[in-house]
Amino acid sequence: MMRTVLLSLLPIVVFSTYLYGLRVLLLLSIVIIMGTITEYLWEKRRSKKVSEAVLVTSILYTMTLPVSTPFWVASLGIIFGLFFGKLVFGGFGRNVFNVALVGRAFIYVNFPEPLTISWNKVASGIQGGFGTYITNGIDVVSEATPMILFNNTGELTDIYSLITGIVPGSIGETSMVLIVLGAIYLVYKKVASWQIMISSILGFLVTSTVLYYFTDVTIANPIYGMLLGGFLFGTVFMATDPISGARTKKGKWIYGSLIGIVTVLIRGLSLFHGGVMFAILIANIFVPIIDYFVNEASKAKKKNMEVTS
């Protein structure tokens, strides 16, 4: 399962290197090393081995960061995420929250400047960023990413750029084509839940439509909004985490819908630009409750059918 996710992320890593330069690979390597050391030191006490999940967590976490994120900040994030998001709960398979997002939320709150102000231009041409360490920084922060541009000026980036991913943003969250291809591959391999993906998108589109057409809340139109920020990346690779996500069939639909709804509400009613990170973490809290009531409802229905028959 972990190797399948790694394969689905490989094209995104390569494309992000093309966009931003070789620092992507260096940042990724440092995060993987720090994450592996953290888990190794913890598991060594229990005479257990490091799981392949730490590689997936490290890559997903890195893909949510701006390429210019200081190495020490990124290292603190992955250490915090692994320790407080997984290891203290008992290690692999016991985490309540998505581990990568725990790490990102930690540095987002404690070190907001590198995650909200420092953005880099995207490379172009055949060679792209493969021949440079890092692309140039963006001076006008208000126009740094499509999401920030819309929130500050109301201007929408052209849809072609949003779909292809040739726009500034977090390292791996911009290429919608590769994200969708990754989603198809994960669903085909039966590694990720298509119910969670579809319900997240439906929850997002329905809520966006209501707020966009029937209220004064300032949000992008539903289709553009879905392509802005890291919503699709989070939906495909974070929300579908089999450990922290819902496990019952009906629970997956409820869980996914909750993520889509909360993402839109955070975008429209708070100061945060993206929303999907906090939406997934909030939904993680309700997963045990959702699955519990779904199971109880199923038992009650089965019992009633037995009594009737």
UniProtKB/TrEMBL annotation:
Transmembrane portions of the chain: 26-42, 54-84, 159-187, 194-215, 221-240, 252-270, 276-294
Source species, domain of life: Bacteria
InterPro entries in the cross-refs: NqrB/RnfD, RnfD_bac
A Pfam family the protein falls into: NQR2_RnfD_RnfE
Alphabetic keyword roster: Flavoprotein, FMN, Membrane, Phosphoprotein, Translocase, Transmembrane, Transmembrane helix, Transport
Keyword Transcription: no
Keyword Phosphoprotein: yes
GO BP, one annotated term: transmembrane transport
One Gene Ontology CC term in the entry: plasma membrane
PANTHER family registered for this protein in UniProt: ELECTRON TRANSPORT COMPLEX PROTEIN RNFD (PTHR30578), NA(+)-TRANSLOCATING NADH-QUINONE REDUCTASE SUBUNIT B (PTHR30578:SF1)
The protein's name in its UniProt record: RnfABCDGE type electron transport complex subunit D
